[in-house]
Amino acid sequence: xxxxxxxxxxxxxxxxxxxxxxxxxxxxxxxxxxxxxxxxxxxxxxxxxxxxxxxxxxxxxxxxxxxxxxxxxxxxxxxxxxxxxxxxxxxxxxxxxxxxxxxxxxxxxxxxxxxxxxxxxxxxxxxxxxxxxxxxxxxxxxxxxxxxxxxxxxxxxxxxxxxxxxxxxxxxxxxxxxxxxxxxxxxxxxxxxxxxxxxxxxxxxxxxxxxxxxxxxxxxxxxxxxxxxxxxxxxxxxxxxxxxxxxxxxxxxxxxxxxxxxxxxxxxxxxxxxxxxxxxxxxxxxxxxxxxxxxxxxxxxxxxxxxxxxxxxxxxxxxxxxxxxxxxxxxxxxxxxxxxxxxxxxxxxxxxxxxxxxxxxxxxxxxxxxxxxxxxxxxxxxxxxxxxxxxxxxxxxxxxxxx
Length: 403
Ligand code: FES
Ligand SMILES: [Fe+2]
What we know:
This protein is of the alpha+beta class. It has 2 domains: 5-54 and 182-402, Naphthalene 1,2-dioxygenase Alpha Subunit, Chain A, domain 1; 66-175, Rieske Iron-sulfur Protein (3-layer Sandwich), CATH 2.102.10.10. Helix content is 29%, strand content 27%. It has 11 helices and 20 strands. The protein has helices spanning 5-25, 40-43, 45-54, 178-182, 186-191, 211-216, 224-227, 257-262, 328-362, 376-389, 397-402; strands at residues 35-38, 61-65, 74-78, 85-89, 95-99, 114-116, 119-121, 128-130, 135-137, 156-157, 159-162, 165-168, 198-207, 236-246, 249-256, 277-281, 285-290, 298-306, 313-321, 368-371. The strands form 5 sheets. A 7-stranded antiparallel β-sheet has the order 13-19-18-17-16-15-14, sandwiched between helices. Strands 6-3-4-5-10 form a 5-stranded antiparallel β-sheet, with no helix packed on it. A 3-stranded antiparallel β-sheet has the order 2-12-11, with no helix packed on it. A hairpin with a 5-residue loop joins strand 4 and strand 5 (95-99). It starts with a helix and ends with a helix. Fe (ii) ion binds next to loops.
């Protein structure tokens, strides 16, 4: 599949037209109804364990951008699902992933977070493996009577590369169908041109809440006016959303204050320069194209990983320059963009998430939270996550009374 620049522009224009119409008509994309959700969805350790297994180990998850494995031999660790994995671009250019476990006696094979290597050499007894996972050299090999076999090659896990993203499914021997997983979201991802992006800065944002509470904070603009009064509300409206669902993935756009001016002008005068908005790549990744300040645009990945405990999450955040870094000045600007978003997330969204999640653990059995019609992304996200984890959402007291 290859999307032309005309098609990409037509895509932004279609989005912008819907946004402008909402501004003029004082409307928004909305869910058909409100939805109540049992708080145990956020606090139940059994559900949490099912999600960790089904969504994070038996589903393709983004390990990095393709550009972070730039050449044959480039590798990176991917430990965030709890399974120790090394992702590598092999000598044939293919991306492969292996358990980061030496096949001699189980030592942690690769210890640097990232790098380039022809061979991975174990620090315990010095066995070496090539970047296709094959056992390449063994000191004093003749002491292994009968020789060494296939079973001494590294254990591979499914990996694939699509549209500038590297996906890994953290279960050895499982089958990964990445195109089926992406489904109708594929052209949306392709149009983001992630393969053109250059990595600038990464960091970890920990939060003491369930991972879904953290994820929820990215899916609605309803909280901008109250929570982000000083940071986002001057630039973005909290009442206008453009929402599209693509299988289990979705895209959400929020109206900026700048749009209020051009929504009333002829289309030819609209300052459209690229895609924008929140792109949710099921189960855990947010691709944010834009900036906390309109007029600036970066590509930011937020990958949310649950800890072993139901109330532990780490968000791995990386910012990329959409078309590469061409000057030191620009690099500093993108770094400042990273810091500005991280500040908002840590001091506003994640403070709320930690307090809110703890409060949920104090609520009586059967208590619910409610997502309004504007929180449409959250409604669908919770249904899809529950389905993917094989854990139906509990019936609320209201649903039971209605039956
Ligand atoms: S455990 Fe790796 S060489 Fe012995
Ligand atoms: Fe927020």
